UniProtKB/TrEMBL annotation:
Residues 35-54 bind DNA. The keyword Transcription regulation applies. Residues 14-72 form the HTH tetR-type domain. This is TetR/AcrR family transcriptional regulator.
Length: 188
């Protein structure tokens, strides 16, 4: 048992769950209408195993959503290690926008109370990731201090509203430049 009284998952059960989430992620990226039976077959497990982890299609879709968002959140340190802070900011937000645009089959599942709970649960980690990016930018002097990560996240929300086409990406790059001009450190 864990500290909060919920049963611990066995290591093999966690591995199965991770594998199922990755297979479902890939399947939903191909088609948001992929059946659970197809996902189970692709994962090399029986339908019972899939349903034991995810009793409904909505439960699987929302778990994939939460898993994907957590992977994006967890990627901040790697992006910062690979890029200068301001470039990392740009790269990470483009990745977030690409994901939000796809939503991997969320469709109707977005309009349920469970979906709102899942979205609300991912807000704090995403805002914390934005805070990490901003702190790195402040530390290297490229962004002014005192910015609220929630405000910056809201401001950057335009990224998932522009189309994922070449024209949309060009527009997104211009808009990111406008935002960065507004939050950069400017000489007095």
């Amino acid at each position: 048992m864990t500290d909060d009284g919920t049963p611990r998952r066995r290591a093999d059960a966690l591995k199965n769950r991770e594998h199922l989430l990755q297979v479902a992620h890939d399947a939903f990226a191909e088609s948001g209408t992929t059946s659970l039976n197809v996902i189970a077959k692709r994962a090399g497990v029986g339908a019972g195993t899939l349903y034991r982890h995810f009793p409904t299609r909505e439960a699987l879709i929302l778990a994939v959503y939460q898993h994907d968002v957590q992977r994006l959140v967890d990627s901040v340190d790697a992006v910062l290690a690979e890029h200068a802070p301001l470039a990392a900011f740009r790269v990470w937000f483009h990745r977030l926008a690409d994901y939000v645009r796809l939503k991997h089959g969320l469709g109707e599942a977005l309009h349920t109370a469970a979906a709102q709970d899942a979205i609300n649960e991912t807000y704090a980690p995403v805002t914390a990731a934005v805070a990490t990016l901003l702190e790195a930018c402040v530390a290297d002097g490229s962004v002014r201090p005192g910015l609220d990560p929630a405000d910056v996240l809201l401001l950057m929300g335009f990224l998932w509203r522009v189309p994922g086409t070449d024209t949309g990406r060009a527009q997104a790059d211009r808009l990111v430049d406008l935002v960065l001009d507004g939050i950069r450190t400017h000489p007095a």
